[in-house]
Amino acid sequence: MNVALWWIRRDLRLADNPALAAALEHDAVVPVFVLDPVFGGARYAPTTSKRLAFMYGGLESLGRDLVARGSRLLVLEGRPLDVLRDLMSEVGADVIHACEDFTPYARRRDATVAAALPLQLHAGTAVQPVASIMNRQGKPYTVFTPFYRVWRALPMPCANDLHAVPSHIPAPTHVPAGMRLPALPTPEAFPPGEAEAQSRLAEFARAAIGEYPRRRDVLADAGTSALSPYLRFGMLSAREAAVTALAAAAAGPLAEGAEGWLRELGWRDFYLGVLHHFPQVLKGAFNPSLRDIAWREAPDDLAAWQTGCTGYPIVDACMRQMLATGWMHNRGRMIVASFLAKDLLINWQAGEAWFMQHLVDGDPAANNGGWQWAAGTGTDAAPYFRIFNPVTQGERFDPEGVFVRRWVPELTAVPNRYIHAPWTMPAMTAALCGVEIGRDYPAPIVDRAIVRERTLAAYQAARESSPKFSNV
Prior knowledge:
The protein has 472 residues and is of the alpha/beta class.
């Protein structure tokens, strides 16, 4: 009997799993998940507990699905190389199959394992082979539009390309006992598991995908797919998501929305490629001319931003949504990121780290790409002189104040006219609402009439003292 290890990392699913499909070519398969001490192992549960609980829930769900197919999930803790070497010896395995990953640590880890053990990596994280998408000069793309043009022109997956869910997964005669995962309360907004991911994808594709361009930026509306946590941990295949989008695009009325959502999957692949080719982005600005911005050391302002107490309702609502649910609307992420980096002039890396602590879908590639876009320091970045106005952003994307009132209930009685700038209320209106600015709700922590010049000066000084840069 030849035995294969299926080393599960961020592919917690049975459907369209290339590593599992390859492992099934052997006589028997041992599915194993390694709790790496680099990430704190089984005892790791700080402020990332929502994401950790979501992952543990996904593993529990996968374990049940495996039992139903004659197998079981083996969870072990330790250094991956040591765990896998011992497990191969114990079960008589010949090979390890796993889906690729793109973070610098994952690549170092996999290189270490591959140098000592027969590890075979399979493309299973992205829609297209992002690491090999190059321009005519043989260099990786650093601007999204030309990347997407090439990405979209490549043969896209179709339903027949997806690996089917196996009805049976043969197990060897002996598999060691693993460990039980700690019980953590899973995030209410995101029940973990492959079945939930499949259900959400099908529901989104039925109708909402057609309205995606119109509803995607409305903060109070469920206009996005909310599938990012499931894609993050591979409870949903990115290729299957693309196949679903393409099928909807062929359905006439849904075409525009489906193409818009497919483009977002392209953004996900783009940021995976940026991280693969330029791992230094996790340590600082991609744009070398903006690596030495004189950021403010303002711990009180940072704390106010982190806790949703800035005095700008749309910023505070978004931050409170994340703290409560582990998720934030994509439009909200752009608003709060711009506010931290460009209104408060606080290093975007502090925001990047805060997001990674609290987001269920926290993913190094997409999180870093989004923050560098907002800060104007990245590959395909917003111009450094573009500074979102949180008041007008609120008026545009939450015109009735529904989202703000949901997450900032102290402003419930404030009229729509003032909901995004409550400090402008006349005294009589404020008294009728029962809202005293500075007592019931914070006064704005920054005067936006002066911050623009401060920010532009800091960015310009960094540019003048650094090498010239072009991302073309």
